[in-house]
Amino acid sequence: MKEMKIIAFTFLCVIMLCVSAPAQTPVMMAQAPPPPPLPEEQQATAEQISTLLDTMRIKDQMNTVLDLMQMMVQQQMQQQREVLNSRQLTREQEERINNFLQQRMEKARDLYPINEVIADAGTLYQKYISREDADVFIEFYRTPAAQRLIDVQPTMSQELLPLVLSRMESRVKAFAEETGREAREFLK
């Protein structure tokens, strides 16, 4: 269950990274308050934002992320099956469990459809991206370098996600143990 929470948290982080425009670094955000939304007359048009998101291939990126997450969850499910199989499940029970888990995966994927995420992201982008900046971003994302970045992002995510999960799991475990020890000492 803890692993599923970590996966869900990581999934949300990855989605946020995929749909974010070039952003301020955390250091910059700590030094200055976030910028207010632009006045409506300066905001990018809905058409510009749609073009930008299409040029960034956000839908493809999100599908890749969801596929990656589904693959990781399936790996977790396989580990659970191995535990259940040690309990000598019948072939029928194993098939029922597999079907149930597959249905849950499909339902989870449809909880917040990608088109809705993109529409919501577009509304948000429009508040903060000017018409001039939108044109610059579109021009940039049409360059071979930006398209190459978009092409390699799924591979990088696929390599990064297990690494992040592994490190998070070990560090969370160590942190929990340390916190437990300190709490016991504190309560003495």
Write structural notes for this entry.
- The protein is an all-alpha fold and 188 residues long.
- It has a domain at 1-11 and 43-162.
- 80% of the residues lie in helices and 0% in strands.
- The radius of gyration is 21 Å and the shape is extended.
- The model is unreliable at 1-29 (pLDDT under 50).
Give the helices and strands as they follow along the chain: HHHHHHHH
Helix content: over 70%
Oligomer: single chain
Count every beta strand, where a strand is a DSSP E run of 2 or more residues.
0
Tell me the fraction of residues in β-strands, as a range: under 5%
Question: If you compute it from the alpha carbons, what radius of gyration comes out, rounded to the nearest whole angstrom?
Answer: 21 Å
Largest sheet: none
- Uncertain runs are 1-29
Termini separation comes to 31 Å
| Structural class computed from helices and strand pairing | mainly alpha
Mean pLDDT across the residues is: 81
Using the alpha-carbon principal axes, give the shape: extended
Number of helices: 8
